[in-house]
Specification:
6-stranded mixed sheet; alpha/beta; 2 domains; 5-stranded parallel sheet; about 350 residues
């Protein structure tokens, strides 16, 4: 059996997946906020499930509550398959109507989704004392049990996950997921210390550096840039776009674009520009003296700036959580200028 697990993007969402990973090895993890992204991620999963009819698949959804029309679509898609089942474990009261209608939809507002997930699988596969402690810490903060002895530790754990946006999950889903699991694994080392919340908060910067560190120590900013540039360089053929006769790299909401963009262009001199698209249609362009991106920004994105650093607005852009969709619409748009 293979598990395709879609969960939320906060501590509780990743906590659900952390629990599942402790009980199953053959898992693919997906994360989503609410709204359109749930449907996009579900479609990604269904494409893989439908392409593997000889493999039984459990499509597990946790810590998100799709609206009724989306639940109806999920039911319709999965019911056509003999090799797939759907299970949703959630705690948001807004899903009550769906729970009453769909047998695959389980809801309990008295526990966080991580605890629901742990209780469900531990009854089948056995208790795990250390994992149970992690679950109780997440539960204390997610449903706000301020009298719990784990509450202050839960606050730090929640803050760590919420602030760890260094790896964009749209572009680098697997790496982002590995990062979240690394942070949760390292946090467990502090649970039994005196004043664990303070000890964990004090250690957070070093823990993050440990994940990104390669062969030498550096500032966290530089370590993150080196890590991301290494991934981009290894897979640059997947991100390459063209503007007229100039070759560029397209990224989505990568953050710290000046540092990362410049580092990439220095290490990959065959590229002329670095283009970042952000939610809200904003774009950032970086160059290394091989193209005047202020003119590029002015012509293509009604923007401007400096020769090596400019920005603008991609007015026709429709945001997506799927990089391939972002890439295709950007590529198609820029091809209009290539023809001129």
């Amino acid at each position: 059996m293979k598990i395709y697990h879609l969960s939320h993007t906060d501590l509780d969402g990743y906590g659900c997946q952390y629990v599942v990973a402790n009980y199953f090895k053959d898992c693919e993890f997906y994360n989503s906020n609410y709204g359109k992204e749930i449907e996009e991620k579900f479609e990604e999963i269904m494409i893989k499930v439908e392409a593997n009819p000889d493999e039984f698949a459990l499509i597990l959804i946790t810590d998100v509550n799709p609206i009724e029309s989306v639940c109806e679509e999920f039911t319709s898609r999965v019911s056509r398959l003999n090799h797939a089942k759907l299970l949703l474990l959630d705690h948001h009261q807004t899903g009550k109507a769906c729970m009453e209608k769909y047998p695959w939809y389980f809801l309990d507002s008295s526990r966080c989704a991580t605890k629901i997930t742990y209780d469900f699988f531990s009854k089948i596969f056995g208790e795990n004392k250390e994992l149970s402690l992690m679950v109780d810490i997440i539960n204390s903060i997610d449903i706000w049990l301020s009298d719990s002895k784990y509450f202050e530790l839960g606050k730090i754990l929640m803050q760590i996950i919420a602030s760890s946006k260094e790896i964009n999950r749209t572009m680098f889903a697997k790496q982002n997921h590995a990062y979240m699991f690394f942070l949760l694994n390292k946090a467990r080392e502090y649970f039994h210390l005196e004043n664990p919340n303070i000890a964990l908060e004090d250690a957070t910067h070093s823990i993050k550096k440990e994940f990104f560190k390669n062969d030498k120590n550096d500032t966290l900013c530089n370590l993150i840039s080196d890590y991301l540039v290494r991934i981009l360089s290894e897979n640059k053929q997947d991100y390459t776009i063209y503007y007229k006769d100039k070759k560029g790299l397209l990224v989505y909401d990568i953050g710290n674009v000046s540092v990362i963009g410049n580092d990439f262009l220095v290490k990959n001199p065959e590229y002329d520009f670095f283009l970042e698209i952000n939610p809200g249609k904003k774009i950032s362009l970086r160059a290394n003296n091989k193209i005047d991106v202020s003119l590029f920004a002015k012509t293509a994105f009604n923007g401007g700036g400096h020769a090596n650093a400019s920005g603008g607005i991609f007015t026709s852009y429709k945001d997506s959580s799927i990089y391939s969709k972002i890439y295709e619409q950007t590529k198609t748009y820029l091809e209009k200028f290539n023809e001129k």
